[in-house]
Amino acid sequence: MRDADSLTDALALLAERDPRLARALRDVGPPEPRVREAGFGTLLRVIVDQQVSTAAGAAIWAKVTTAYGAAPDPAAIAAATDEALTACGLSKPKRRYAVALAREVAEGRLDVDGLAALPDDDVRRALLPLPGIGPWTVDIYLMFALGRPDVWPVGDLALQAACAGLFELPKRPDAATLEVLGEGWRPHRSAASLLLWRWYGGVLKNRTGAGIPMTESGKKT
Length: 221
Known about the structure:
Blueprint: H1 4-17, H2 19-28, H3 40-49, H4 54-68, H5 74-78, H6 82-87, H7 92-106, H8 120-127, H9 135-145, H10 157-166, H11 175-181, H12 189-208
Helix pairs in contact: 1-2, 2-12, 3-7, 3-9, 10-12
């Protein structure tokens, strides 16, 4: 969702269709669109954000951009030493994932800028073979960088927690269950995701007092 009008329209349709989403919208109001620039830097940022809190991801990314600039060059990351990336706060697996992605782009095997012209499934086929890039990473990139309207990141722990609260489930649903729960929200599942993240942060987290880190489902090592 790349603009406020499209998001507003999608949320209105979802609220008409599902009273639970209507309640969430009343509770917290409409979320803002989240837009990131498509390209290598954003894909690298999503890797940085895997399995850490929002604050921790932002702190690590600040170190990366201090060392490599606001738009890190793939060739520079590909040539970075282990020590340099460790100093940025990247874990051993993430150092490997970052370098592998950077090499794919720098050496021309992955046309990351060309992903914007591809259907969602083709974007998945291009990215999922890479180390450290699983369904969650691709979903986040599709939603925030490419602005795709019907993305549903079923591996996201905060979405799972939000749906558990909204549907009054006895426990947090797994990815397969979340896939089923979101079927009725097609083709506006990106808008549903944004609303549920906002509801989780504004209502559910205040009830539980605990945050949930960003995640990567199906991550390959």
